[in-house]
Design a protein that fits this description.
Largest sheet of chain A: 5 strands, mixed
Radius of gyration of chain B: 27 Å
Structural class of chain B: mainly alpha
Strand order of the largest sheet of chain B: 1-2
CATH superfamily of one domain in chain B: MetI-like
Number of domains of chain A: 2
Number of helices of chain B: 15
Strand content of chain B: under 5%
Number of strands of chain A: 15
Mean pLDDT of chain A: 89
Strand order of the largest sheet of chain A: 2-1-3-14-4
Shape of chain B: globular
Helix content of chain A: 40-55%
Low-confidence stretches of chain B: 1-14
Radius of gyration of chain A: 25 Å
Order of helices and strands of chain B: HHHHEEHHHHHHHHHHH
CATH class of the largest domain in chain A: Alpha Beta
Structural class of chain A: alpha/beta
CATH architecture of one domain in chain B: Orthogonal Bundle
Oligomer: heterodimer
CATH topology of the largest domain in chain A: D-Maltodextrin-Binding Protein, domain 2
CATH topology of one domain in chain B: MetI-like fold
Helix content of chain B: over 70%
Distance between the termini of chain A: 82 Å
Mean pLDDT of chain B: 88
Largest sheet of chain B: 2 strands, antiparallel
Low-confidence stretches of chain A: 9-32
Strand content of chain A: 5-15%
Number of strands of chain B: 2
Largest interface: A-B, 56 and 44 residues
CATH superfamily of the largest domain in chain A: Periplasmic binding protein-like II
Number of helices of chain A: 19
Chain lengths: ~475, ~325
Amino acid sequence: MERIPRRGALALFAAGAALPVSGCARSSTRGGVAHGDAGSLQWWDHFDPLKSALTGLFDEFEGNVGVAVERTVYNPDSMGQALQLAEGSDQLPDVFTNFFGAPSAALVDRGTVAPVELSDEARRGLEGSLFEGVHTFDGKIFTVPIFSHRQNSTLTWANSRLLEKAGHDAENLPSTWDDFRTLCRDLVASGTDHPWVAPLAHSDRMQEHLVDLAQSAGQSLAMVGSSGNGITDARTGDFPFASEAFLEAFAFLHSLITDGFMLPASTSLDAREARVRWASGEAAFFFDGPWNAGVLNGQFGEFMEDVRVSGPPSPDGRGLTARPPADGQFWCAGRSQRREEVGELFSLLTRSEFAVALAENMDQPPADPHALDRAEVPALYSLAVRLLEKNVRTAPSPVVRNPAVGSVIAEMNDIRPDLGDIIQGYLGGDIDDLGKELTRFNDRLSTERDRAIDVVNDAGGGVSVQDWIFEEYRSGDDFDVTDY
Amino acid sequence: MTSMSRTTEPRAARGAPRSAGEVAVAKRRRPSLWIYVFLAPTVVLFGMYTVWPSISSLVYSTLEWRGLGLERSFTGLENYRRLLADPLFWKSLWITLLIIVVTVPLRVTAGLLLALVLNNPRLPLAGLLRTAFFVPVVATTAIVGFVMGFVLDPSAGPINEALSILGVGPVDFLGSSRTSLWAVMGVHVWKWLGVTLIYWLAALQTVPRELLEAAETDGAGPAARLRHVTLPLLRPFAVIIVVLTVIETMQIFDLVVTMTGGGPFFSTLATEVYIYDTAFGAARPDLGYASAIGVAFGVLTVLLMVVLTLVMRLARRRQEER
């Protein structure tokens, strides 16, 4: 056999290695999308419960346009990672849900998403519900809201059998914090050792509960998304986490633990596991969003008749919360070659038939409040959504006032411990001086926001802290598109 | 020597006819193409999955890159400066170190003791016992972590049920920052003890039976045979077993993520988990900073291995000098 020089052999190996490696590398010349069937439109989302609603929509779209939609459903945990990797290799799908962890304005700035052309009928149907900086940018439509913003994660879900066992009227759930604690005491006395289960290991969900409870205690908030970076005191523009309302909300949750009402396993449960514990009768109360009815209906059907629901408990018993205008869920990739088709697909999302199908999925409530009237859903889900329509207000959003605020929030580094960490630390006994910790968190967020504002302004952003201030807004009011 | 004499051979002489024996010897010495063919998969895969990612991480660690979009700006050593001032990084390093300091001696010692017992040819059901100890090793870590959540549950877990019979508890093993790390370490030792056991069993097969029989003939009892024959012969293996166990222990990511996710309140935040959180789990992914943590952790791992190996070598040399 002919001798191969060692250097030659190594060069051969290097070339062999370079081929597959270069195949994995990002191509800067090819505008790629995720590759499925040739000619199909690629769609990634994390809404597993929307299968039937979207399948019908896709079938209709294929019938009209002649293009099949290939849908991939990710777990919320892995969706962001999938998008990061896909973008790094120019393989973003044509349509995706924004799990980049960045406000939509940042995606628009970077060209990650593209505007779409909706049909005239769709445009008419969306009048009054599209917000600049949320759904439209420079007047161009990028996304459409399919869910209502009138929702929260802190409805009180109760096991009526356990309540009746404690001698309580299950149709009359506690509306105040004091009533809630009193009923917990009665439940303990009647043999339900731990009446309340909470997903303490799920810090994002606990943060949502805390924000809802603080709002129900009178805190007026301006909001961009649901993370701490985007939540500010509407009247001052400051970060509000050491305010009286937040401290009261903390104290309420803490009292449920110190009084022994919380199921001990809560400390290591996420929302799904906590729901299972509650549905199996280990606890009487569980805070969750309206989708709880859909999950129960699918997984614990026999339990449905024992379930009752009411709004979040609050100091005054009204349970008012607020959310900013709902984001659009689906976005068209900036490099998609099928933007025209995506526009037609997004137009179908605005039709009332889709809203009805959405309601029948019993996940987040549809943007069209009338869809529930025509949907065939259990009364429990209808009741939950009606409660939310009545008690959730529209919070002001700094991004709607100035879309560049989104760039500031995208620029801000995470502060750790964040609000979710602090909740976990305080309720778990790792933080003794809560006020000091929250004040420190507020200060660090403010410093980081100031830095981010400077960075964005240096790039021509035109943002100031004034963009976060809505002095005229009061807790319990709606802040509509005309109020900006 | 032969090769030297050949290279200094006059050029003309190289063309001279050689005997058949010389040709055969020369052929044997030529690197065959097959060597490279067989090496190729390793070189290619090692290049793709170790060298390439390592170099990429080094490059990424000098960038400000959120993983969002293709915008990356070079920031030099800024990520490393940030890392030095990051209390969570130091906390995660401390937790990783604590896991190593507690679990490695436990695994190595318990593995050795078990191996000595199971290596006894007169032990009944030795094969079955070896398998039993190895079963957790082959179980998927994510499933182990998930199942242990139930086993250690403070409300209805079997361990707390047992403790309640004794009038103790309930103990919130995974939900309290005082106990969570110890619970994770306990499960880690249980799951991976079988690997260390197999290392020691393999090492024990190298102890010549004649030596043990000779010692027995000379009147050495079991303890003396262990102390003066078996353990000295096992010492060289101890170095590599400790090094391997330390490396395995540093890769505790999957168990921590499935059991505690790094919580509660960072109490089980091993460095690998912190890297993942920073790169993918955070609300604002920060791949540049996560790469810097990864590089720093890699460097510290190598340093730890070097120090460990040097210490072991030094100890062995001193032993030999005695």
